[in-house]
Design goal:
19% strand, 2 domains, alpha/beta, 12 helices, 386 residues, seven-stranded mixed β-sheet, four-stranded parallel β-sheet, Rossmann fold, single chain
């Protein structure tokens, strides 16, 4: 397959280390005589049909290395909807441009796309692989996903800073809403903010445990009466015991239903029921676009995933996603593995119940031990005298 071209496609929401995976893939591809051009699809999967590619092999190394410190997606991304007939068209389009290797970087939806492209190309000799990417950390099989460690570091550092502010003037409750539509990995990571038992976050709520409003109000009131200032972290996708979003829907367009912010809903609930001052904060995209809080572990592993994906397709592998396996031992270490993409397609990995306390409003030491190495070092230490 000498002289074939490589196509790299990004899908879904970016992360703080998505471009590190791109760098790893391009850097390794430049060393492979089997690969001629290294194409980046500009704007996601739609570029497969428009041919809007950039040849990344021609980019000077000093410029290419900037990918390691660039948030977002340097080649763009999309949630472009693909129909069955679109997949049927792809092999011929790849062959027109002499593309023998296709790599998709993304989360659940992108790995589903990867699997469908793999099936479409199965008899054509085009090798297809996936590079994991999701700050939500909900990709199946792999121990964790590139993008999560940086989002976790941001959540922990930001909550530590908010906690210091609230402790200084303890007169209100602060709700911090973080991303994580169906899984609470990022919210749980805010617990890494604590230096002492009474430090923020004081309560953490994730989608894995049904949310009970009365228990929530009782927990908040007890802490407010004792501490005066309370910081509560909530995932954006909290659900009740029936599995329904705790926030009533605002409106529906097509297949999409839109909800108000869960932190806004809970703020109004606390004010109405408890009559105390409440602020709600929603970092939102800041949590996945921050290079200042980029985890070096996350960045290096994202780069490694890109490198290993290129090595795998050149070696003859196809229909896989690069995954991480955590090794036993006193020091944190991982090894890469190739996961059959069929095991990953649209399979969401939620937090195990053992990572959450009995009441479902905090995490366990087991989770902290698992998560701490991923944020890439200790956070800035604070001091208090009150």
């Amino acid at each position: 397959m000498a002289g074939k071209n490589l196509l790299i496609v990004h899908g879904g929401g970016p992360t703080a280390v998505l471009n590190a995976s791109l760098y790893g893939a391009v850097a390794r591809a430049r060393e492979c005589p089997e690969i001629d051009h290294v194409y980046g699809a500009i704007g996601g999967t739609e570029a497969i049909f428009t041919g809007n590619f950039v040849d990344l092999k021609t980019v000077p190394e000093e410029k290419l290395r900037l990918l390691l410190q660039t948030p977002g997606s340097a080649i763009g991304s999309s949630r472009f909807h693909l129909e069955p007939e679109d997949y049927e068209r792809m092999p011929a389009l790849f062959e027109e441009k002499n593309i023998g290797y296709v790599l998709l970087t993304g989360g659940n939806g992108s790995m589903d796309t990867c699997g469908k492209i793999f099936k479409a190309c199965g008899e054509r000799g085009i090798r297809v692989g996936g590079i994991p990417k999701t700050m939500d950390n909900d990709l199946a099989v792999t121990d964790h996903s590139p993008g999560f460690g940086s989002a976790a570091r941001y959540a922990a550092a930001t909550v530590r800073e908010i906690g210091a502010d609230v402790r200084s003037l303890p007169i209100h409750i602060v709700l911090v809403e973080v991303m994580g539509r169906n899984a609470g990995w990022i919210a749980a990571s805010s617990a890494l903010a604590r230096q002492n038992p009474d430090d923020a976050p004081h309560l953490i709520y994730t989608p894995e445990v049904p949310f009970d409003e009365q228990e929530f109000l009782a927990d908040v009131k007890a802490l407010f009466d004792r501490l005066g200032g309370v910081v509560v972290v909530v995932s954006e996708g909290l659900v009740d015991k029936e599995g329904k979003n705790v926030v009533p829907p605002l409106f529906t367009i097509g297949r999409s239903t839109y909800f108000d912010d869960v932190s806004t809903y809970l703020r109004n609930l606390i004010v109405r029921e408890l009559g105390v001052k409440v602020r709600n904060e929603k970092p939102g995209l800041c949590g996945r676009a921050s290079i200042a809080f980029q985890s070096p572990v996350d960045r290096d592993e994202a780069r490694l995933a890109g490198e290993k994906a290129v090595e795998a397709v050149v070696a003859g592998e196809t229909g896989f996603m690069v995954g991480f396996r955590r090794l036993d031992g006193p020091e944190y270490a991982i090894e890469t593995m190739l996961v059959p993409v069929e095991q990953v397609m649209l399979d969401e990995k939620k937090m195990p119940r053992s990572y959450l306390n009995e009441k479902g409003n905090d995490v366990t030491q087991e989770f902290l031990d698992w998560a701490r190495p991923l944020i890439g070092g200790e956070l800035t230490e604070f001091v208090h005298f009150n």
